[in-house]
Design brief:
Layout lengths: L4 H17 L7 E7 L18 H9 L1 E3 L2 E2 L5 H10 L3 H4 L26 H7 L3 E7 L23 E5 L23 H16 L7 H29 L2 E3 L2 E5 L6 H15 L5 E6 L20 H23 L6 E7 L31 H4 L3 E4 L8 E3 L3 E2 L3 H8 L16 H4 L10 E6 L2 E7 L8 E8 L22 E11 L18 H18 L9 H4 L18 E2 L3
Parallel strand pairs: 1-8, 1-9, 2-11, 3-12, 4-5, 4-8
Antiparallel strand pairs: 2-10, 5-6, 6-7, 7-17, 9-10, 13-14, 14-15, 15-16
Helix pairs in contact: 8-9
Length: 573
């Protein structure tokens, strides 16, 4: 009897050893990286032979590479709204019927509505420490310059270091302006009217009072002065760097900004290594205005664009090394993507080509051709996701929402339509087919195209209801407007729709016809039925991209000094 304590003691030791061997953080961490305007063909693991991306390539080798990964929109603001919420942008109102389809002022009142649920907000409720480092581009204020109703903190991010808008041409001296106001103001018409009136006056055909001519000339000069002045102060208003709720640089300095953001990301991971965390690292590169730190300038064969890609790859490497050093790699799901395809129209004010490469895919940013929405999708989680695999099933950046929510221990909300699907079965090999039978592609608030992957079929059909008018005609880009528009006058509607089989023609080079595809009309009929079902599910909401929500409002302007001092400071240390 005196030895009866031995089994119990051994059992207690076994339990203690088991508990000690469990990871301190039983919930997985998340590192979600989004590059801005990166083309799917810019990475070595997706076929690039002239740019060096060893860290991203290694990430793909260790995990799963998605080769049919689709951004939910072809412009920054709606694409990022969809990524964070798992919902088509039309559902949250982050879609409009006018151009532009994104925010271009910090002092606009639109943004991601507060009632939307992001994966950060849900992860925070599950006990995660959350951070956004980099680009936001989903609004800032509503009624005052400091209400921060659309700030990342209102959507679940405990820490924010980055820019509330986007990296604009105006943020780098000598790169021109994103406004291009001269294209929308009638300077040429006004000049023509003045010259014609002067000729007719001196020819004796009409008589014009000198005072009228003086007023017209004065009006022209005033308009010109106002436009020139606004363009001059534009960087002070919109090139803003924030730390949490405080403006720390205005305008920000691009030099070494990626390195500073990388240091912030490393610090965040180190501070939170003992608890579950979610890091959304949103690169400013490789969006215009192009920049690269001194260590990377001249490192590529593709100018400043290639240099920026090299710096992004370096940054990814620093983050992965940090996870390895802290022994967090096997408990961290890592995701890397781009918010849309490369911007084909990017040519600097000096004529240097800044555009990336979308591989074999047609078109680019701001279009729903495959080059505008088929993006890199790499997920790695050693021990949980088998490495070295490719998945060619249709997936979406909206899928990260339900995936993160599920892994964080929460349930996907049932009080709203969620358009993404949990990726884990597909990534772990338990499922061979994507749950996306249909994907709907919007250009702003207009339904542009539909993708259909029928059950028990390898085909992926895609139908376009309209396509952008390309300029020049033999190109697939819109150089004279800087991006392709989807508003009337800039598109061509198709009846019947243009139909492609992406499984046989991924470059969308040859539309199918009833002669080349016997099931032509039945395919379009099935897609039409799906569109009608989808549109019935879209509830009317207030648009966040109207004239009233897009225009600059002085009382919403974030400033680290007074507005009359041009809102300028260099405070960040």
């Amino acid at each position: 009897m005196k030895f009866t304590w031995l089994p119990a003691s051994l059992l207690m030791l076994l339990v203690a050893a088991t508990v000690a061997s469990l990871p301190k953080n039983s919930k997985p961490n998340f590192v979600l990286m989004m590059v801005d305007d990166l083309g799917i063909g810019d990475l070595g693991c997706y076929g690039n032979k002239t740019l060096r991306t060893p860290n991203i390539d290694q990430l793909a080798q260790e995990g799963v590479k998605l080769t049919h990964h689709i951004a939910a929109a072809s412009l920054c603001t709606p694409s990022r709204a969809a990524f964070l919420t798992g919902r088509y942008p039309i559902r949250s109102g982050v879609a409009g019927t006018i151009r532009p389809g994104v925010f271009i002022f910090n002092a606009a009142s639109g943004g991601l509505p507060s009632h939307e649920l992001t994966f950060a907000k849900i992860a925070k409720q599950q006990g995660y420490e959350t951070a956004l480092i980099g680009k936001w581009h989903l609004g800032l204020n509503c009624e005052r310059s400091d209400d921060h109703c659309h700030h990342p903190s209102a959507h679940g991010f405990n820490y924010f270091f980055g820019i509330p808008l986007t990296n604009l041409r105006d943020c780098q001296p000598g790169h021109g302006t994103v406004l291009q106001i001269h294209k929308y103001l009638p300077f040429q018409t006004l000049t023509l009217v003045l010259v014609t009136m002067a000729i007719l006056h001196y020819a004796g055909i009409i008589t014009i009072g000198g005072r009228l001519i003086e007023r017209l000339l004065s009006l022209t000069l005033v308009i010109t002065g106002l436009v020139a002045g606004f363009i001059m102060v534009f960087p002070y208003l919109n090139c803003v760097l924030m730390r949490d709720h405080r403006v720390v640089e205005q305008p920000f300095t691009s030099e070494n900004l990626t390195q500073r953001m990388t240091s912030e990301a490393v610090d965040f991971i180190e501070r939170n290594s003992a608890r579950p965390f979610l890091l959304y690292f949103s690169f400013l590169q490789v969006h215009t205005a192009m920049f690269a730190s001194a260590a990377f300038r001249g490192s590529s064969r593709h100018g400043i664009y290639g240099d920026a890609v090299h710096e992004v790859d370096w940054s990814v490497g620093q983050i992965m090394q940090t996870l390895d050093r802290l022994q967090l790699r096997e408990n961290t799901l890592v995701y890397l993507t781009s918010d849309q395809g490369a911007h084909l129209e990017e040519i600097s004010s000096t004529g240097e080509v800044h555009r990336g490469w979308n591989g074999i895919y047609k078109g680019g940013k701001s279009t729903n051709w495959e080059g505008g929405i088929r993006v890199p999708g790499i997920l790695s989680w050693p021990g949980k996701i088998p490495g070295g695999r490719e998945v060619d099933e249709p997936t979406s950046n909206m899928d990260l929402f339900p995936t993160v929510v599920h892994l964080s221990g929460a349930s996907v909300p049932e009080d709203r339509d969620i358009d993404g699907h949990n990726l884990m079965d597909l990534l772990q090999g338990r499922a061979e087919r994507s749950k996306h039978e249909f994907l709907f592609h919007y250009c702003n608030a207009y339904l542009n195209a539909v993708r259909w992957h029928p059950e028990n079929s390898s085909s992926v059909w895609k139908a376009f209801y309209f396509t952008p008018n390309a300029y020049p005609e033999n190109e697939v880009a819109c150089f004279h407007t800087h991006v392709c528009f989807c508003t009337p006058g800039y598109v061509t509607h198709h009846n019947p729709p243009l139909l492609f089989d992406l499984s046989k023609d991924p470059s969308e080079s040859t539309p199918l016809t009833p002669d080349t595809e016997p099931a032509f009309y039945s395919i379009l009929a099935a897609m039409k039925e799906a569109v009608e079902w989808h549109q019935r599910s879209v509830k009317p909401v207030a648009s966040q991209l109207t004239v009233g929500t897009l225009i600059w409002k002085p009382w919403l302007q974030p400033c680290c000094s007074t507005l009359w001092q041009l809102c300028q400071c260099q405070q960040d240390q």
